[in-house]
Task: structure prediction
Amino acid sequence: MPQSALEERVARLEGRVEGFEDRFASLERRLDALDGKVDRFRDELSGRIEALDQKISRHFTWTVGIQVAVLLAVVAALAGR
Result:
C-alpha cells in the first residue's frame, strides 16, 4: 500500500474520531443539563410532598378530634340515661 493512501486513511480515521469526541462532548453537556432538571424537579417534588404531608397531618388531627368529641357525646348521653 502506498504511503499516501495510508496517510489518507489515517487522516480519515482521525477525522472520525474527532467527530465522535464532539458527539460525546455534546452528549455530556446534554446529560449535565438533564441532571440539573432532574435535581430541580426532585427539589420541587420534595417541597410538594412535605406540604401535602402537613395538610394530611392537620386533617388527621381534626378527624381524631371529631371522633373523640363524638365518643364523649355518646358516653355522656348513655351515662345520662
Notes: The helical segments are 3-79. The chain has a mean pLDDT of 91. The first helix runs from residue 3 to 79. DSSP finds one helix and no strands in the chain.
